[in-house]
Amino acid sequence: MATVTIRHVSKAFGENTVLQDFDAVFGDGEFITLLGPSGCGKTTMLRMIAGFEKPSSGEIWIDETLVSGGKTFVPPERRGIGMVFQSYAVWPHMNVFDNVAYPLEIQKKGKAAIRQAVEKVLESVHLTQYAQRLPNQLSGGQQQRVALARALVAEPKLLLLDEPLSNLDAKLRESMRFEIKEIQKRTGITVVYVTHDQTEAMAMSDRIFLINRGAVQQEGTPADIYNRPLNPFVADFLGKVDFFPGEAANGKIIFPGMGGQSLPYGGERRGRVQAAVRPENFVISPDGPLEGTLETWYYLGDVNDCWIRIGETLVRVITGGYRYGTLRAGEKVRLQVRDMMVFPDDGSLEEILSIQT
């Protein structure tokens, strides 16, 4: 398989810099996700790894081979990659077998070798029984699996996927997430996956590179980025979170918007802060330090989605579905906080959180 080394890569189109100083190593057999809002530079980075774009500066190595940098440029077909695009790009006039076999026919492999390779990869994506069907006889998920099989059939060192599930409905997206991850585990192939969907990134990745405005905001495992975000943008983009302005002093944070109520705080920050709390980290508890009124709640089966007013502030609280029937609109409740992230407040939060496109 392959290791990808990206050394201080930047990319500009004219005067517009879309990616700046990307520096990373993607390990052999890792599942790497480039995550971020539309236009952040993630697809540009993928296309440079593939060889469809050239870096404006910096170098890209696949294993020990320099593929882009300086005067060196290795074309896509010589990089040992497989690629799956957002559109399925399966040929409508070819059946499933012939679609998957096409890359091997281009390489002028023998018929017996082609049949053996295609049958093996069709089995891995659970399409053996559909080998003779045309694309218009397949569902969207099956067509995407054809595209995945075609990318894998030549046994590439590196698999690149550019938002491959965005055209599928929610249920198919969920099932395909697990199928792609299982194929990656079985084959041990290195995967670089582009998406704007944080659920996909969380479910599939060994490491996530969260990008915004052409710069990596944070890199780490899904648990690291979700639980220990480096800045408010990361906290907001990866999961649900609410921000509460407060004043940190004397071992607590006082929240003016909550009528002066406070939470204990043992951190190092002082002065104006933004406390960030995910809805699942609020707990309705009789001895909680915050008191409010339950305005409304929605029963969603597995959870209750509650809105509690504390002073002038509406607080979102997600509790277990087992509490169905125990909650009443208008009742007084108290809240504890299991986990809280605290960021300095320099007045730029609204601008930071608006940068989503």
Explain how this protein is built:
36% of the residues are buried. The two termini are 34 Å apart. The protein is globular. The mean pLDDT is 92. Helix 2 packs across helix 3 and helix 3 crosses helix 4 (140-152). It contains 9 helices and 21 strands. Strands 7-8-9-3-10-11 form a 6-stranded mixed sheet, sandwiched between helices. The longest helix has 18 residues, at 170-187. It has helices spanning 42-50, 96-106, 111-124, 140-152, 170-187, 198-204, 222-227, 232-237, 349-354; strands at residues 4-13, 16-26, 31-35, 57-62, 65-69, 72-73, 81-84, 158-162, 190-195, 207-212, 215-220, 242-249, 252-255, 261-264, 271-277, 282-284, 290-299, 303-310, 313-320, 332-337, 341-344. With 357 residues, it is an alpha+beta fold. It folds into 2 domains: 4-234, P-loop containing nucleotide triphosphate hydrolases (Rossmann fold), CATH 3.40.50; 240-354, Nucleic acid-binding proteins (OB fold (Dihydrolipoamide Acetyltransferase, E2P)), CATH 2.40.50.140.
